[in-house]
Amino acid sequence: MSALDSMNDGETLTLVGSGYPENTITAPIVRLEDDTTTEDAAQAILSVFPLDNIHPSPIAFLDLTGESYDVPDVAFAVNGIASDAELRRVPMERLGLEEFLEQARSSSVVVRVGSDAPPCAFLFRRGAL
């Protein structure tokens, strides 16, 4: 993915599912195959994309529930993938819709999976190589 190579330290990549509102996306979109899951995409991205180790939460996920105890399975999976890739515990933060959309608008790249996964979206903050 040359789009990832063009990103600088501190920039954000947004990973979204097929239900994410495309009219809110301003960055270039990398569209993955229809059967690619969010977890598969996160695995591929995080195998070559270092996460910020200075920011307290280099990953944020879109929280549509508003319940602090209700974390979607896909968020747990992505957090595990990130922690394995980074060989450290990677903190994640949850963002409500408006705050998530605001931060996603400044993303350098948006990766869109094609599978009909539950609504999910993540922000990954790039760290130094």
Automatic annotation (TrEMBL):
SUPFAM superfamilies: RbsD-like. Keywords: Isomerase. Pfam families: RbsD_FucU. Its EC number is 5.4.99.62. GO terms for molecular function: D-ribose pyranase activity; monosaccharide binding. InterPro entries: RbsD-like_sf, RbsD_FucU. It is an enzyme of class 5 (isomerase). This is D-ribose pyranase. It comes from Leifsonia aquatica (Corynebacterium aquaticum). The lineage of its organism: Bacteria, Bacillati, Actinomycetota, Actinomycetes, Micrococcales.
